[in-house]
TrEMBL record:
Membrane keyword on record: no
Name assigned to this protein: Glycosyltransferase family 2 protein
Pathway per the UniProt entry: Cell wall biogenesis; cell wall polysaccharide biosynthesis
Domain of life assignment: Bacteria
Glycosyltransferase 2-like domain location: 7-153
Keywords: Glycosyltransferase, Transferase
Matching InterPro entries: Glyco_trans_2-like, Nucleotide-diphossugar_trans
Similarity comment: family membership: Belongs to the glycosyltransferase 2 family.
């Protein structure tokens, strides 16, 4: 019997965190009669045994990148009515999935976006990264309408997705931003994304990401993706040109102001000004690069 709800977990060489997630998520799936599906972007199927031990479904998507994996989830969902995405390095809070599903049924929205909170490894402390707010996330009020949403805690109404003919764009597969582009297109087509902060998951940060180099590269990539998704959302050449100009001018301003604050922070030995200035400068630089067509393939190792 086909399930009404499918929970999709994209994964790539994260067997340990995937195993922890599956141990937590199976009770959620039982409570909502949902099917859990692991979509493995490793052609060798390194997540197969982990999925088998948890008693959940596993498929291999050999196409490189997140867009291919997420589109495979859309295809594998078949006749289900809702598709839920959660990342393989996250853990759900109690009642996460039932809360997300209840909000969808209550509102009939095309998408319901849950809240994500960051958890750092025990004993970890770096004032520079903490003051920079590199892992802080935008918060939305309960029931607020969002203009876009990431897929690390997102329910999609598949009837709405099919009706609008929206897919994840392969152009963003290795750079990231495919989820923001997808959800922006859904909203542009007339659908709504509703915020549901009570549907909470925790993002458990990989220690390898807790370095200055990684967080600044992520800020740079986000700057590029922000402009790329804005440009791609425009249907006319004039609109795309305007989006590029806004990205170039806005990015230049952000980089200049951020660079000054960065320098001031170094001079005054202020971790707050140092980190936040660096973050703004790198993001602004990314916006400028994105405006002239440049890219950064953050997920190229896939």
């Amino acid at each position: 019997m086909e399930r009404e709800i499918v929970v999709a977990i994209p994964t790539f060489h994260r067997e340990g965190s995937l195993s922890r997630l599956l141990g937590e998520i199976v009770p959620h799936a039982t409570a909502t009669n949902a099917r859990v599906l692991v979509i493995d972007n490793d052609p060798a199927g390194s997540a197969r045994e982990v999925a088998a031990r948890a008693g959940v479904d596993h498929v291999i998507e050999p196409g490189r990148g997140l867009a291919a994996v997420r589109n495979r989830a859309l295809d594998e969902a078949g006749g289900a009515r809702a598709l839920v995405f959660i990342d393989d390095d996250e853990l759900p809070a109690p009642d996460w999935l039932p809360t997300l599903v209840a909000r969808w049924r209550e509102t009939g929205a095309a998408a319901v976006s849950g809240r994500v909170e960051t958890r750092f490894p025990d004993g970890w402390h770096d004032p520079w990264i903490e003051e920079g707010g590199f892992f802080r996330r935008v918060r939305f009020a309960d029931g607020a309408l969002q203009h876009s949403a990431p897929t690390n805690n997102l329910l999609l109404d598949l009837d709405a997705v099919r009706r609008r003919g929206v897919r994840f764009d392969a152009a963003f597969g290795l750079s990231g931003g495919e989820d923001i582009h997808f959800t922006k297109r859904l909203v542009a087509a007339g659908e709504e994304i509703v915020s549901c902060p009570d549907a909470l998951v925790y993002d458990v940060v990989d220690p390898a990401r807790l370095t200055r180099g990684w967080v600044l590269r992520r800020a740079y990539r986000v700057g590029i993706s922000t402009v790329h998704t804005d440009v791609a959302a425009k249907t006319h050449a004039r609109g795309r040109l305007a989006a590029r100009v806004r990205g170039l001018v806005g990015g230049g301003a952000r980089a200049a102001v951020g660079g000054c604050r960065w320098f001031f922070g170094i001079l005054t030995r202020s971790p707050r000004h140092d980190a936040r200035g660096a973050r703004a400068a790198w993001r602004g630089l990314g916006m400028m690069v994105g405006s002239v067509g440049g890219s950064y393939q953050e997920y190229s190792r896939r």
